Amino acid sequence: MADRSFRTFRRALAVVFLVAAIALLPGPSVAAGDGSTTLRALQMNLCNSGRAGCYTGRSVTEAAATIRSGRPDLVTLNEICRDDTATLRAVLADVHGGGTVVAAFQAAGDRPSGDVTRCANGQPFGVGLLLHLPGRHPRHTVRSGIYPAQDAIDPEERSWLCITVPGVVRACTTHLVAGSGPVALAQCRHLLGTVLPAIDDATGYAPTVLSGDLNLRLGGAPDVRDCVPSGWSRVDDGAVQQIVAGPEISIRSSRPVSLHGTTDHPALLATLTTHPGSAAVPA
After folding, report:
1. Would the keyword RNA-binding turn up in this protein's UniProt record (predicted)?
2. In a domain, 230, yes or no
3. Which residues are CB-contacts of 45 (< 8 A; sequence separation ≥ 6)?
């Protein structure tokens, strides 16, 4: 059944490319008769540096189990070591059993050394992104960087990461600063208001999903809504993890998923649906 579902979606996606409509990605996704497509997105902060008090050494194993049960198309990862990306990429590829899983990692900077922030095991520490795509060797681009605004007290310089499949989807993740609400807001506005338009100019427009630990809350001071553009939709885990979707995408459902004490955050799993040529339904 899974193989037949994948072949059906691949045929539908080929039609979408021919008519230049906007679609999202496969896996457990379903292409509807109106051209819309469903995408399952999973956000996790794994606290896997080995240095923080929330470290347990078990979060990557729990993340793998969550990927297997949730069968997402997009996985965004915060507070990970570089090799965690490859480990969980293999899990996502096994879950889908076809197509290609694109993986990317971006380290946080380390202000005192001028190098990258490192995990206790010596690997670079930062954010990761996994995206399941149909077919072999799909055309995509990776963009990443360090924010110009940083918390002067925090030696870790926060970063952002995006994968763009031109005309299909742009998936981004970030872990914003925790100790300063105004700086987190400035970073969020920079990503959504400066970085994404620049990527549009470089690679062409694509419907965008941002998923990550923004360290901004609904009703907080500042409020996460202060950085979400008009026409975009948003859901959260009840705290600081957010999934933000552009105007062609509605967020159909979302729920926190327990990671059973292996990290200090739940996972956040959401089902998104594209609406080609229309605005998103506010969440």
Report:
1. no
2. yes
3. 77, 78, 79, 175, 213, 241, 263, 264, 265
Judge whether 89 lies within some domain: yes
pTM above 0.90, yes or no: no
- Helical ranges in the chain per DSSP H: 2-19, 59-70, 82-96, 181-190, 196-203
Angle subtended by helix axes 59-70 and 82-96, to nearest 10? 20
The whole-angstrom distance between residue 144's C-alpha and the CA centroid of its chain comes to 13
Q: Do the beta carbons of residue 151 and residue 106 sit within 8 Å?
A: no
Q: Given pLDDT bands bounded at 50, 70 and 90, which one contains residue 193?
A: very high
Residue 281 lies in a domain: no
Strand order in the sheet with 249-257: 100-107, 125-133, 74-81, 38-45, 267-274, 249-257
Of all residues in the chain, what percent carry a pLDDT higher than 90?
76
